[in-house]
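User: My collaborator and I are trying to settle a disagreement about how two of our proteins should look. Neither of us wants to argue from intuition anymore, so we agreed to look at predicted structures for both before our next call. Could you fold the first one, then the second, and keep them clearly separated?

Assistant: That sounds like a sensible way to settle it. I'll keep them separate. The first protein:
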Amino acid sequence: MRLPGALQNDNRSNGDEDQAALAESVQREIGPLLEQLKTMRAREGEALEAILHSTLDRLREATEGVAGLRPEVEERYQARLTERLAAATGPEFNRQRLLEEVAVLVERSDISEELERMRTHIGHFRELLAAGGEVGKKLDFLLQEMNREANTLLSKTGGIGGKGTRVTELGLAMKSEIEKAREQIQNVE
C-alpha cells in the first residue's frame, strides 16, 4: 500500500473521490485476504511437514537396513583382507601381525559412527520440525550433514561385494531421500 501509485486509479475523471474509494476498498479487503494467506500457508506447512516426516521415515529405514547388514559386511571385509594379505605374503606370514593389520583396516572401515550420527541427525531434524518457527536454514544444514554421513558410509563400504552391494543400494537411497528433503526445505522459512 505504501508503493507510489499503488492506490491510484487510472481513471482521472473523479480524481480524489476515486482515490479515496479505492483506498477504502483496499483497507476493507486486506485483512480477510491476509487471513486467507495465513491459513493457506499453515496448510502448506502442515503438508510439507508430513512429506518431510515420510522422507525421514524412509531415511531411518535405510539407516537401520545398513545397521542390520553391518556385521556381515565387516566379516566379508575382514575375509577379503585376509585373502589378499595371505596371497601377498605367501605361506610364510605372521598370523598375529596379519590379524593386527586386519583389525586396523576393519576399524577404518567401521560404519557404526556414521550410522549413529545419521540417527542423531534424523532425531534432531524431527525436533526442529516439531518446534516450528524459522528453521529452514537449520534443516538445510542438517541435510548437508546427513549427506556427508551417507557419502562416508558409501566410501567405507564400496567394493566389498556380497552384502556390501545392498549397503551401497541403501546408501544411495539415503542420498536420494536427503536430496528430496533438500528440495522441500527450499519452501521452509
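The second protein, kept apart from the first:
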Amino acid sequence: MGTIQEWNTRTYQVPLEGQITLEGNLNIPDNPRGVVVFVHGSGSSRFSPRNQFVAQQLYQAGLATFLMDLLTANEEQEDRYTGHLRFDIQLLSRRVVGATNWLLLQPGIKNLKIGYFGASTGAAAALVAAAEHTFEIGAVVSRGGRPDLASSALSEVRAPTLLLVGSKDTQVIELNRLAYSLLQCEKRLEIIPGASHLFEEPGTLERAAELARDWFTDHFSASPSVASHSGPGST
C-alpha cells in the first residue's frame, strides 16, 4: 500500500468544542473536485493504512482528502483499555461536525462539496454528521461500517450513501441491510466478493477504493469546484 505521507501532506491543528484540538492531514490536488473527510473506526487513527490507501486513490482522481484523529492522545490511551469511546457515536459525530465546520472556513476548499468516508464505527459518526450538515455533504461511503449505530439519524440523511461490505463479514452485512432499509436518500449496498471485515484479501480494498472513487466523483460532478489550490496555513 502507498502512504499518504508520500504526496505532500500538510498537518493542521483543528480546534473543536470543549477546548479540544485534534490533528488532521489534508491533501489538496490541483483543481480539486471535492474533499473527502475520513472518519476512522474502532481503535484506529488518521494513520490507518487502509484509509490512507483509499485516500491516495481518491487524491489521484482529483479529490482532496482530510484524515483526522477523532480522539486526543489521552483519550486514545484510555480507549485502548476500555474501548468505550470508539462506540460513543454522539461524541465522534460532534467532532466530525466540528471538523466539517473548520473545513468550510478554509480558503482552498470552502467552496467544494464535502464527502464522508467512514469505516467501522466511524461510518455511524459520519452518517450522524451528514444528517446535521444536510446541504454541505455531497456523498457518504461506508466501508465495513456500522451504519446501524446511527439509529434515528439514518432517516434524516440526504446525501447519497454507498454501503460497502465484505461477503465474508456476514454479521455486518445484516446490520448494513438494516441500516439500508432505514435510509431515505439515494442509496446503494455493495457486497464485495471474498472480502472480510478489514478488506485484507488481495484486491478487495482496491475494489472498495474504486467504488468509493466513482461514488464521490459521480455525485460531486454536478458541483464543480471554484476553489483555488491554496489551502489554510499548515502547522
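Some points you might bring to the call about the second protein. Residues 1-6, 223-235 have pLDDT under 50 and may be disordered. Helices lie at 49-60, 73-82, 89-103, 121-132, 170-182, 204-220.
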